[in-house]
Amino acid sequence: MKMFGLGGLEAAVMKVLWHTGKPARVRDVLDRLDTGKPLAYTTVMTVLDNLHRKGWLDRDLSGRAYLYTPALSRDAAAVRALRDILTASGDPEATLLHFADSASDEEAAVLRAALEKKDRER
Fold this sequence. Notes:
Layout: H1 8-20, H2 26-32, H3 41-53, E1 57-62, E2 65-70, H4 74-89, H5 92-102, H6 105-121
């Protein structure tokens, strides 16, 4: 699983933290990561620090170790990624129209329902 703006290992770390649902230390994340290859403690520590600097994680000092928590929910992260893609496209309207053209019947129904709800709330 890769998320726009995140590398593969960063996305795997975020998945662990979203799934855990509670603050986690480096060791907790390392023990839950399943990347198919062994990782060093310092590698995971560096990834967590990078995600914190990028604004993906919050951290609090607990004794001598940091406890990490996602700074935003998985849904909020997906919205952020979509916004980044729309901005990066250079033509958000064309990108949205192209997506709507490619949407499955189920996706189109979800979009229609969401837009109708938004109209009712205005």
